[in-house]
Backbone:
């Protein structure tokens, strides 16, 4: 931790210029730096703080636990000097190991957060929510969650650049091609582009071209008229292209689309019209196409397995999602997010990963990318009975898998310091686009935390949150908190 303390006066000057309370601890949990804003809150002098263990100075802290686990804890409720505050706890990685952690007081009063929530809810535009399936009969096309671009999690330079380019793509009407290995989150990014575009109030229709047999793909995409074939639905059925009118059509695994269907898709993109199977009427369609693939389309074009003219139509804006093994600095953040989400979904108390587990997961190659990470977290949460997940809790098949597919070194080399991400908002990213949804999520988490700490006593919870009891009842009813 000598490197962190070496900058001395410069670091102290920067920290003391900030309004948020900030504290820095080393690998043993001892305080090596603290700014004036935090000292003022604690009503302590700097000389009485530096060098002491953080638990001796700051009540209810978990910074020492973050050092142990390497898992960031964002937007957490912490009671300090009889006040509930919102804090971030962020590990500092160097050479593949956690060398310290930084704690940031985001809100020194819950009332400040409520004021921001109220302002955002007043001024933020209505965010479209996931739409229940109506005309579509296939669950594969149902949008279950309205993702935003910030929901594509990560703090690596590659992900920051990807989100920046995705926001630019959202502001244009042109086609987007998303490439990346299976499980990297291509549909999450596609939904984010849709719901931050001027088509956000229109439908988002998702079609997995690899999951539909070639013989059925045409009817699925273009629809059919009554009597088009034996067993055709009376009155016909609109296709997914038609249903995407005034919205976005997302064609996943487009590299698996047969050549005959590629020619018909190209005609739709050129004419902006669609004709159902067995029909004679051409219907106007106004849609934005986003496609995705894990295949090498350039090679497929060279080999004659993908139409060159369609390729150029699709490849106007190209977004490539790097595999998880190439952005390992994102793994702790992803683990923290999906660990909390899985615990909540399975009705389990909040769990944490030991530092040995995090190091082992950082060394793993993740051939299944984020999808595999989510699956592994679900397995661990389901099997572990304690609050801390240790290597002994891994089932034998996961032990074997981690040994076989791990790289020699778990080292990560962040392109930017984790401390640079101290400001973004809780859990899923910084407020901004999708602020209304995100702040409502934060509001729900804070109320639930206050109710837990108050033993379910709503009067006491309202007092802790600094709001009137009737206001809390209204919030509980509005947010559907049981």
Residues:
């Amino acid at each position: 931790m000598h490197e962190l303390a070496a900058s001395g006066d410069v670091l102290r000057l920067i920290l003391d210029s900030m309004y948020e309370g900030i504290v820095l601890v080393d690998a043993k949990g001892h305080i090596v730096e603290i700014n004036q804003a935090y000292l003022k809150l604690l009503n302590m002098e700097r000389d009485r703080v530096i060098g002491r263990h953080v638990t001796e100075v700051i009540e209810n802290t978990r910074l020492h636990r973050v050092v142990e686990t390497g898992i960031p804890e964002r937007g957490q409720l912490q009671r300090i000097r009889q006040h509930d505050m919102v804090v971030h706890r962020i590990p500092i990685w160097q050479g593949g190991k956690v060398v310290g952690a930084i704690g940031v007081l985001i809100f020194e009063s819950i009332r400040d957060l409520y004021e921001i929530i109220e302002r955002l809810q007043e001024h933020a535009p209505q965010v479209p929510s996931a739409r229940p399936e109506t005309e579509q009969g296939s669950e594969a096309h149902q949008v279950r969650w309205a993702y935003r671009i910030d929901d594509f999690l990560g703090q690596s330079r590659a992900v920051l650049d990807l989100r920046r380019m995705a926001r630019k793509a959202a502001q244009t009407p042109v086609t987007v091609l998303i490439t990346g290995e299976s499980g990297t989150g291509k549909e999450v990014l596609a939904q984010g582009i849709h719901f931050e575009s001027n088509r956000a109030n229109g439908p988002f229709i998702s079609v997995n071209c690899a999951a539909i047999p070639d013989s059925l793909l045409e009817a699925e995409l273009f629809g059919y008229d009554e009597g088009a074939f034996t067993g055709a639905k009376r009155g016909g059925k609109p296709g997914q292209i038609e249903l995407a009118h005034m919205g976005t059509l997302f064609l996943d695994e487009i590299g698996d689309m047969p050549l005959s269907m590629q020619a018909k898709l190209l005609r739709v993109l050129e004419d902006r019209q669609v004709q159902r199977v067995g029909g004679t009427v051409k219907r106007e369609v106004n849609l934005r196409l986003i496609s995705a693939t894990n295949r090498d389309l350039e090679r497929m074009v060279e080999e004659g397995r993908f139409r060159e003219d369609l390729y150029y139509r699709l490849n106007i804006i190209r977004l490539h999602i790097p595999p998880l093994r190439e952005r390992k600095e994102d793994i702790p953040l992803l683990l923290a997010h999906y660990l909390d989400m899985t615990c909540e979904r399975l009705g389990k108390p909040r769990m944490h990963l030991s530092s040995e587990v995090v190091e082992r997961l950082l060394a793993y190659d993740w051939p299944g990318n984020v999808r595999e990470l989510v699956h592994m977290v679900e397995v661990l949460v389901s099997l572990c009975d304690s609050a801390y997940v240790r290597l002994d809790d891994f089932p034998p098949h996961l032990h074997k898998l981690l040994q076989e597919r791990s790289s020699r070194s778990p080292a990560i080399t962040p392109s930017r310091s984790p401390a640079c991400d101290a400001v973004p908002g809780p859990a899923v990213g910084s407020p901004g686009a999708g602020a209304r949804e995100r702040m409502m999520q934060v509001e729900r988490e804070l109320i639930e935390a206050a109710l837990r700490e108050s033993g379910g006593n709503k009067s006491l919870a309202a007092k802790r949150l600094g709001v009137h009891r009737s206001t809390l009842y209204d919030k509980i009813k509005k947010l559907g908190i049981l």
About this structure: The CA atoms of residues 339 and 406 lie 21 Å apart.
